[in-house]
Amino acid sequence: MTPNSFSPEVTNPEILDIADLPAAAIAQHLAAMRPADAIEVLNNLDIDDTVAAIAHLPHEQAVRLFDQPELRRTDDILEHLPLDLAGSILDAMSADRVTDIFQELEDPTRTRLFVILNPETKAALKKLLHYPENTAGSLMTTEFISVPATWTASRTLQYIREVERSRETVYAIYIVDPTTKVLQRVVTLRRLITSEPDAPIISVGRDETPVAISPLTDREEVARLFRRHDLLAVPVVDDDRHVIGIVTVDDVLDAMTEDMTEDAYKFGGLEAIDKPYMEIGLPEMLKKRGGWLSILFLGEMLTASAMQHFEVELEKAVVLTLFIPLIMSSGGNSGSQATSLLIRALALKDIKLRDWWKVALREMPTGIALGALLGAICMIRIAAWQTLGFYDYGPHWMLIAVTVAAALIGIVTFGSLAGSMLPFILQRLGFDPASASAPFVATLVDVTGLVIYFTVALIFLSGTLL
Amino acid sequence: MTPNSFSPEVTNPEILDIADLPAAAIAQHLAAMRPADAIEVLNNLDIDDTVAAIAHLPHEQAVRLFDQPELRRTDDILEHLPLDLAGSILDAMSADRVTDIFQELEDPTRTRLFVILNPETKAALKKLLHYPENTAGSLMTTEFISVPATWTASRTLQYIREVERSRETVYAIYIVDPTTKVLQRVVTLRRLITSEPDAPIISVGRDETPVAISPLTDREEVARLFRRHDLLAVPVVDDDRHVIGIVTVDDVLDAMTEDMTEDAYKFGGLEAIDKPYMEIGLPEMLKKRGGWLSILFLGEMLTASAMQHFEVELEKAVVLTLFIPLIMSSGGNSGSQATSLLIRALALKDIKLRDWWKVALREMPTGIALGALLGAICMIRIAAWQTLGFYDYGPHWMLIAVTVAAALIGIVTFGSLAGSMLPFILQRLGFDPASASAPFVATLVDVTGLVIYFTVALIFLSGTLL
């Protein structure tokens, strides 16, 4: 058995056949599958079949499927389900998923569904809906376990057994002050089951202030805390340290993946798109790509202006134009290297904003050395082509070689500096440093690069070529 | 209290003061901190103080700190610790971390430490060390809980209470066939504590084949399975479905972050570096950046060759050179957009390798539309500059505008196609699609872009300018 044949997924050859079965039979198949597999089947059925199949599922199973963020078209499905069934599914789901779904719902379905929810779901939804995207509040759910500090271990365990079904996780138990309700300790379930039944619950947890976050904590910061403290869940507390919800690790995994995709798109120079490639329609695709492409194009037009400025020199020494693409791309490449290094360093908090000058002091010699390396390669190339007779750069070929090499040093250094400082500037201005895209850095460096090149040429070639 | 003042971390104003305390006092401070905070302090102490402080820590605390991947210089610390203490810490640690540490150790320390390990640690280490990096085997640990299918729920719970301390996680319990030891079910701890004490353990878990992976499963695929099935741990099984280890979610979070950084570096056109920016020495920095920069530079030299080929045309119509940077960068930008879209689509398995032609069929019209958009902008610019008298493109300015616009359509289409197909080609050849860096795509498109531009110019301008 090779590792490749080892796929743990039920890659279902019957997926297509299932679609032809009556809804009740489809539901029966779905109920026997893992939720992720069942969702893959549902996502590939047409909407009527999906609705019919869900209507035939046991209630608990339907709730389980709706609880997965991977289920698509939830708005359509809910719109077509019988109203009472839609309501009872939403009431039984976890509050964070209901919130996600309502965020995508549009009126009139949204209002129609909201009014039939039970009061607790309504309350949770109202609370969760007002947190901005990308914050802990938008990831959190209100179904957690908290007990007063006066309880014993066995009473806590008994309580968990009673409420387990309705809680997102029971692996972290939040101990609060019996009167002020302020968070005091976190006890893990593994600690709880190994503790003395009569021990006060407050004595079971480690004697340290629990890691807690505000509902407005950025979700990238939430992910960082999960990694730092190896958490399975983190309590979200208000300003008085009352627990108002929890964020669980499965939501953090999903959020990290979304962030990864967003950052990759930003760095590639396009707007974030939160759906699979194949589902992006042509108009949306053009909007997400055309906007940035046009802005970059307008910026890059400055290169034409810069070159018009050096028109006289260009006419005199057409040989200089041969190296324009080479020089510009080297600046862009060194800039995109520096940018990708610094975007990550800032994201991982390896570097603080105030350390920008330390970075500049490192990028300067790095840029000079890298520029010198490329300059040397270029001089060798020009000398080789000239002496081997591949191309004639004219009588001043040595001066040309020196000019190009000097320009490369200047441009690669500028590229490294500009590329490394841009993420700092963006963060300082309150933008995401990951917005420093490779194309943006390249555009920035291209225009300056041309000016550097022609200035160096004027210095080295005045009186000979120019 | 603003969200910013809400940092849950013990940002320790005393960190610097601590360094001046005697080792025993440092150890006392460390023992009272969260592991992540204690590690931050240790990472900032010099090596002698670090070793002395660890030697003064209670044994269990020292093990806890070593169990965190964030602790740096473990090789130095172990080399300087008393041999028996180093050995006893390693014996008590989780097997996956011991493996990570041994992977970084060098002889003679490596051998010196290996011989004093206890037999179980040695056996686990031998098993884990031979799995390649980036596989499930390199992430997994051998400390998991498995019980025979014949046990009852209460006996299982009793067993967990006994062995809890030595297990990485107890939240997933693996039920194996009592004779063949083949994995049959997974039971979660929350199911276990809510089940009837006398129930056979096999009846407690959901009636489905557990998600399991091979030790050679790629770690990106492991992360995908965690997200798909909302796992806290996944069993690693051999070809006969015997459980040989588990991968836990905290390791997956760390691995995802490393992958994110690696992918960002690759896309930025430099080699992966697995240490914080500030700790990269100049020689290493030059190596990781200079290599790719040189390769790209050599590739980009083809642009000079391409331009030499069109030397005659360049001499005749210097005005054409004005648009070279603009045209080249547009190709590169559209290419990097397409590449970043497709790298993510392949990573998330939104698209399969065999669907490359569907992508090509989408990128073609997208590229043509985007190219037409940029072409239109460029024609407006040339017309405006000409009629407003900002610049004189000569009597044939309309033909020039049409030439540039047509070239833009060709180049942006080519850029979108090349950028979207490159990740497929890399994956097909067995490379990581994420290696398709923005600079690499730009270089590819630059050379072709020049040829397209001059060819279009020859077609449109023969008989007038050329």
Can you describe this structure?
Two copies of one chain form a homodimer. Chain A is mainly alpha-helical. Chain A is built from 21 helices and five strands. Chain A folds into three domains: 10-129, MgtE N-terminal fold (Alpha Horseshoe), CATH 1.25.60.10; 145-256, Roll (CBS-domain); 279-461, Tetracycline Repressor, domain 2, CATH 1.10.357. A three-stranded mixed β-sheet of chain A has the order 1-2-3. In chain A, helix 4 (47-56) crosses helix 6 and helix 18 (324-347) packs parallel to helix 20. Chain A is elongated and about 90 Å long. Chains A, B: Its main location: membrane. Chains A, B: One of its GO terms (cellular component) is plasma membrane. Chains A, B: The chain crosses the membrane at residues 368-391, 397-426, 438-461. Chains A, B: It is a multi-pass membrane protein.
* Secondary-structure element order of chain A, N to C: HHHHHHHHHHHEHEEHHEEHHHHHHH
State the shape of chain A: elongated
State the strand order across the main sheet of chain A. Answer: 1-2-3
Instruction: Give the tally of structural domains of chain A.
Output: 3
Which percent range describes the beta-strand content of chain A? 5-15%
Please state the CA-atom Rg of chain A, rounded to the nearest Å: 30 Å
Structural class of chain A: mainly alpha
CATH architecture of the largest domain in chain A: Orthogonal Bundle
Q: Which spans of chain A of ≥5 residues are poorly predicted at pLDDT below 50? A: 1-14
Biggest sheet statistics of chain A: 3 strands, mixed
**What's the N-to-C terminus distance of chain A?**
71 Å
Domain CBS (chains A, B): 206-262
Protein name (chains A, B): Magnesium transporter MgtE
Subcellular location (chains A, B): Cell membrane; Membrane
Transmembrane segments (chains A, B): 368-391, 397-426, 438-461
